[in-house]
């Protein structure tokens, strides 16, 4: 079964205590990314990876780190969490887009179930 | 200007109604287009891809106008189970951001009896 697995699902932590949210996919996808979702702001991309050892900043990268040492894993690291990083986080993976043969391109992104993080 | 903009909503419609969502995107290098559905605080799931020729999946019809950079989703004969947030999603295929998905803020749909 195609799956993106995030852990933990829920986490309450204190300011400044380093944490890692893991993300793993079993579809051999090249692309993986992290998003945070906040009320009124929608899904915003934090970091993005096109393949192993290739990562790029998204729209809101400050305060986060990522690594992509293996194709299946893409952990999100908060070195010194702060209360403004309290949010719902999603990991996603997708394959390279492919032509549909009618001038369009297609792909599908699969999301993990989310991690609800509270920093106090 | 946001890269992907959707109708702010929320939409509150009775069962059986037809409802339409609109979305515009600003980056002409955008390659692929999608509608995702998100139930309350759960992960987004693909509803349908959007193709230039328009495409239909049961009660759902999606259309794309590349010249106007506009995407739409039509839901006919709304069901209670259609209540969710609908996300317009664009895949950018230019430069170093190849493969980046950008989301609209989402439109909340509530279908009532």
Helix content of chain B: under 10%
Number of helices of chain B: 0
Q: Helix and strand string of chain B, N-terminal first?
A: EEEEEEEEEEE
Shape of chain B: globular
Element order of chain A: H for helix, E for strand? EEEEEEEEEEEEE
What is the end-to-end distance of chain A? Answer: 36 Å
Describe the sheet with the most strands of chain B: 6 strands, mixed
**Overall mean pLDDT of chain A:** 93
Q: C-alpha Rg of chain A, in Å?
A: 15 Å
Q: Give me the oligomer status.
A: heterodimer
- Kindly estimate the percentage of residues of chain A that lie in beta strands according to DSSP: over 45%
Largest sheet of chain A: 7 strands, mixed
- Total count of strands of chain B: 11
Helix content of chain A: under 10%
Offer a few descriptive terms:
heterodimer, A: 120 residues, mainly beta, 4-stranded antiparallel beta sheet, 13 strands, 52% strand, B: 113 residues, 6-stranded mixed beta sheet, 5-stranded antiparallel beta sheet, 11 strands, globular
Overview of this protein structure:
- The complex is a heterodimer of chains A (120) and B (113).
- Chain A is 0% helix and 52% strand.
- Chain A is built from no helices and 13 strands.
- In chain A, strands 2, 4, 5, 6, 9, 12 and 13 form a 7-stranded mixed sheet that branches.
- The mean pLDDT of chain A is 93.
- Chain B is mainly β.
- In chain B, the strands form 2 sheets. In chain B, strands 2, 4, 5, 9, 10 and 11 form a 6-stranded mixed sheet that branches.
- The interface between A and B is medium-sized, with 34 and 28 residues.
List the helices and strands and how they pair.
The complex is a heterodimer of chains A (120) and B (113).
Chain A: E1 4-7, E2 10-13, E3 19-25, E4 31-38, E5 42-51, E6 54-57, E7 65-66, E8 76-78, E9 87-94, E10 98-99, E11 105-106, E12 109-111, E13 115-119
Chain B: E1 4-6, E2 11-14, E3 19-25, E4 30-38, E5 45-50, E6 55-57, E7 60-65, E8 70-75, E9 84-92, E10 100-103, E11 107-112
Parallel strand pairs in B: 2-11
Antiparallel strand pairs in B: 1-3, 3-8, 4-5, 4-9, 6-7, 7-8, 9-10, 9-11
